[in-house]
Amino acid sequence: MIGYVTLGTNDRERGARFYDALLADFGAGRMMENEQFIAWGSPGGGPGIGLTHPFDGAAATVGNGVMVALEAKDREQVDRLHRIALENGGTDEGAPGERWPGFYAAYFRDPDGNKLNAFKMG
């Protein structure tokens, strides 16, 4: 149902470094890019992530209650994604761990404050 999610940034190059590192762990690279927008994913390969300066020229801000969840292949990838996020300018919002039986997750923010989570069900 979801084709892609776009997140705002105030520093495109800093954000790009963060998402290049994080999404490489999924085997996803940049598939579209111009001076305002970068998209990661693969054509026909499930939802992607875009990063952009807001079109209206105002500062990018974080949506309260908005979070992008990244489905990991296993718990080890959840741990790894959390570490990669923190090593690339992200901030911790909840260390990897089981949140309830069968749901293992880690929470973090990108350098612009957008909230993400990596999770594994089952």
TrEMBL record:
Annotated PROSITE patterns: VOC
Write down what this protein is called.
VOC family protein
The record's annotation in Pfam families points to: Glyoxalase
Q: Which organism is it from?
A: Roseomonas populi
The residues forming a coiled coil are: none
Q: Where is the VOC domain?
A: 1-121
